[in-house]
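Record 1 of the preview.
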Amino acid sequence: MRVAVIGGCGYLGGYVCRALKKQNVRTIDRSSQADISLDVTQSVDLHKALQGMDVIINLVGLTPLREPKNGYEAVHVELPRTLSAFQKTAYIVHISALGASTSASTAYLRTKAQGESYLSDSLIIRPSLLFSQTHPLYTALVRASFTRMFPRIPALFQPVDTEEFAQFIVNLIQKRKKGIVEVGGPEQLHLFELAHRVFRKQNRSCVLLPSWLAYLGATVLAILPSTRIGFDQVRGLDLSNVLVPNPLVTQHLLAKKVI
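->
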């Protein structure tokens, strides 16, 4: 089985490629370490790279934590549109985001939903927050632990262990599952609860600050020019990311706690 992993050199890509083990894997990424190094938003180049693949796994997505310089559309919408041309010749797995909806309050989630609309004959997986000790958020929380303070941000997550999630993807590929699958971890945690656990691993206490400080700081950054914080990020402070009953999709709870 010939497998193309788009974004194979990224955070999730490393876990997925290891989970695929002995499969004939081709990584496609902008990184020079990829088997094929290219800009995945260039559809002609990507078409050439994907010829002859049996399985195409798209892991590429922009972070909701920073406002992209050129918007979300090229990665979240146009890339899935390009991949849709391969639905009749390859099995496509597309990683989206829990909460993706055309009526969502943020452009990040709206464009995620728009991209999904092109892949109706594929497997679309919507995970909650992926997390591990190699995740950039974990590293950021370790750095923040020196302050021993964290704001009581109200957003609620259902964090998913990244290694377990990668194996879950491989299991679905083996079953040739199609449709939308939503994935959450075994616990629902506020971001400050996750921070508290990371702080504790560093043998540091965590004093919770009022949430309005986070809103004030994010709003000021959103107003200022030349920052990567926009009003999408301010709205995201309130936006929970947990499984809610939905008869139109398949939902899975994974077993492993992230910390």
